[in-house]
Amino acid sequence: MTDSAPGAPLTPDLAIIGSGSGNSLITPHWDGRPVVLADRGVGSTDAFGGTCLNVGCIPTKMFVRPAALAHSTEEAGRLGVDLHLRGADWPQIRDRIFARVDAISRAGRHYRAEELDHVTLLEQQVRLTGPRSFLAEDGTEVRAEQLVLAAGSRPVLPEVPGVDLPQVHTSDSVMRLESLPSRVLIVGGGYIACEFAGIFSGLGSEVIQVNRSVGLMSALDPDLASAYSAEAEKSWTVLYERTLGAVVARDPEGRGEPAGATAQLLTVDGRQEEYDVDIVLIAIGRRPNSDLLGAEEAGLDLHDDGRIVVDAWQRVLAGGEPVEGLYALGDLSSAAQLKHVANHEARVVAHNLENPHDLRASRQHAVPAAVFSHPELAEVGLTEPQAVEQIGAEHVTVKIQHYGDTAYGWAMEDSTGIVKVIADRRDGTLLGGHAMGYQASNLLQPVIQAMSFGQDAHSAARGQYWIHPALMEVTENALLGLDVPPSRHL
Ligand SMILES: Cc1cc2nc3c(=O)[nH]c(=O)nc-3n(C[C@H](O)[C@H](O)[C@H](O)COP(=O)(O)OP(=O)(O)OC[C@H]3O[C@@H](n4cnc5c(N)ncnc54)[C@H](O)[C@@H]3O)c2cc1C
Ligand SMILES: NC(=O)c1ccc[n+]([C@@H]2O[C@H](COP(=O)([O-])OP(=O)(O)OC[C@H]3O[C@@H](n4cnc5c(N)ncnc54)[C@H](O)[C@@H]3O)[C@@H](O)[C@H]2O)c1
Questions:
Q1: 441 lines ligand 2 (CB under 6 A)
Q2: Is the peptide bond between 469 and the residue preceding it cis, with omega within 30 degrees of 0?
């Protein structure tokens, strides 16, 4: 960005803190107008472009795919194909993934830093000094006409001895390991823990997953959570009602060269257990980076979990009132820490920045999520207990369709996959969808679409062709199985 006196504050028309979904706010609308993008970088390489690209969705799913291939010997065996896994080449898998990811990150950084004259990239941690002003660690001061807070979240670490040892990882570092660990202890029972348990077990590591309570993915619909937990327990070791007490470096050769670690677990009945492993992966949640921004000190409203409070138009609130020209999006402010949510909110904020007298609200309905574990999980809308609570048990209709009862399920000889749909039996309004199994995230998309466009269950099931005998017939049959009235639209 051009010309201000040395030491003078930068005074852009737009400033953005966070280069994840925040990066997409620099639309052609801002061409020729000064913009500042501040980002401190993520992961062990301080990469540009935020969590999803560098240490989140994209590299994890690029590991999920080879792990799924490695797991496919199980299915092959059921189908009479004698497939043997000779091993997974971790360095090759890792390098293929990060060659692509790092190149995209570098290109994105270069474009912002070098190719756009009107954009100043501030590769610094910054802290708010007022509602639309902030200070970087190197003393650069920014006073913006409009400011967007898109500073994301970071992994939570437990306060236990040894958590800072090099053998202890979070999702920020674990994907760049030198070699495939033989034995991994994973702490947590949510998204990240379950995805990495699937990855490491698929690629050949011995996995021990440790969870505080009984059952994994406990926020899901109970039928899905229990079915998933049963599958996970078959594929790797799952220990319940235990927490991490400490991690101690191990020196098995006695040469003063620690290799691996001993994880000390505390059981609910007060016992201590020890597990010798190569690495410990901590995945017990992510906290919004509002503290790094100094949001509270700047007078912004915060939820109890540290998220910045925004209104329906993504405007940041202070004292319950929207602050003019100040927006937030993504993990920093959203209850759902999901990339498609951050991206949607970025599109809403981009519009609102450009059209301050014609504000758009972000969509809160039918927000889906998927967990790319082994097996895959997906959900949208209400769980069955939530539906019962909301409209009363007498009005709720539910259908669980097994993959194994459809033609493609026979082809797969599948005995575990399910799609569950929930509707209001009075008018066929779809309330929720839940899936577990091969391609679960794709199988749920027709339910997400119907819910998003207000299509009732009867119309969604009968108002279109479903390709025979595609796996999607599982979803068709789930919808057909709901006890709902015929649609007036057909
Ligand atoms: C392992 C993993 C797997 C995931 N998989 C999926 C998935 O499959 N699907 C899905 O939908 N979601 C997934 N997510 C969640 C998804 O990655 C996040 O919801 C999304 O990336 C959030 O985007 P954001 O723009 O809000 O924040 P980020 O992308 O985190 O961007 C925030 C940026 O702000 C910077 N920053 C923070 N504080 C400051 C400061 N004070 N000064 C300057 N810069 C600062 C950070 O360095 C960062 O670059 C996954 C997350 C993880 C960790
Ligand atoms: N596929 C996806 O969309 C995807 C993948 C990965 C991450 N994410 C996002 O990232 C977020 C963070 O993922 P996550 O797995 O870290 O969090 P999570 O909220 O999904 O799960 C956290 C787990 O840690 C446990 N836990 C919390 N505190 C603990 C403690 N002190 N000791 C032991 N266990 C504790 C919880 O009981 C829970 O099982 C997710 O909520 C999700 O929104 C999404």
A1: no
A2: yes
